[in-house]
Write a structure and sequence with these properties.
The protein is an alpha+beta fold. The protein folds into two domains: 1-47, no CATH class; 48-103. It has helices at 30-47, 53-60, 64-72, 90-97; strands spanning 5-14, 21-29, 50-52, 87-89. The chain has a two-stranded antiparallel ribbon with strand order 1-2. The longest helix is centred in the middle third of the chain and has 18 residues, at 30-47. It is globular.
């Protein structure tokens, strides 16, 4: 598997031998950076009180198509203040997700 690497940091440090400098190249894996960005996005979404459709899909794990189906059939609590964009109250979404608990 080929991976794309980007050079993220270059530093020159002095070695133990007098007058000798070592070039240190640190390589940051793009995959690791993407994972970190996704994690940061998830943390930010978890702190929001109102979620967009895309954020609600990621938050619940429900596909976009199924989320549209739930909103159009009024089976999930949502708001459409301008008649176009769909928003979800995170507390109501949590309540909806936890309905009908099984013992």
């Amino acid at each position: 598997m080929d991976r794309d690497f980007s050079w993220s940091f270059v530093s020159i440090t002095k070695g133990t031998t007098p007058g000798v400098a070592f070039l240190k190249l640190e390589i940051m894996d793009d995959l690791n950076l993407k994972d970190r960005l996704i994690r940061m996005e998830q943390l930010l979404t978890a702190n929001k009180k109102v979620l967009t459709l895309e954020e609600a899909c990621r938050y619940t794990g429900i596909s976009r198509a199924y989320m549209y189906k739930l909103t159009s059939s009024e089976r999930i609590p949502h708001s459409k203040p301008g008649g176009k964009m769909i928003y979800f109250d995170r507390k109501k979404l949590n309540s909806w997700l936890l309905r009908n608990p099984k013992p």
